[in-house]
Structures are given as C-alpha cells and as structure tokens.
What we know:
Elements: E1 37-41, E2 49-52, E3 55-58, H1 61-71, E4 76-81, E5 86-89, E6 95-98, E7 101-106
Antiparallel strand pairs: 1-2, 2-3, 4-7, 5-6
Amino acid sequence: MAAQDQPDFDGFTAESTDDSRTGWISVGPGETHTGELTAYRPWAGDYGVIEIDGRPFSLNKTQRDTLIATLVEGKQVGLRCSEEQKSFENNDGETVTYYPTQIGFKDE
C-alpha cells in the first residue's frame, strides 16, 4: 500500500477505544487506537514493533511495509561517510576498522 493510499482516520485524534493503559495494544473489530509514534523497533518480533504513546504493538508484514513507505518513500535521501576511521574488536578478538556513515531524509 502506497503512502497516498492510507486509510482516513478522521484527523487521528489521540483517542482510543482500548481502555487498557498498560501492556500491548490490542485493537478489536471496529475499534481504533491512535496516538503519537514513540518508538520503532524494526527487528523486534516477526515484522517489527512500534510503540504508540509508549505502548507496544506488533506489526504484520503489510503494516510494516506501509510504515516504511509512509516514512521513507518519496523523500530525498543523503548518505555521508566520515573521513575518520573507527574500529572495534569483534567476537573473535580481531580488530575491525570502518568509516562510519550517516543517513538523512528530507521532504521535497
């Protein structure tokens, strides 16, 4: 699903039909849960976990793909590689050297 195909949730008011304020978010048939995205852990669970107002929700593949498309697709991306070399010791005790890179996004 492309970002422009997102469903309309009437302005995303910070309201929820979910009365539970602790633990994982569970949205049942006909319910809506909205709020501020406070964390994204892409490698948690099968397809990533987001937090809405500090409460976790496990994404499915379609939700993960929609999140990535909404946040990333269509934005300008820049990569910058440092001129300073860094190093660390790996699990085998060997020194690994690398040049750190940064990534940045901006809307056009």
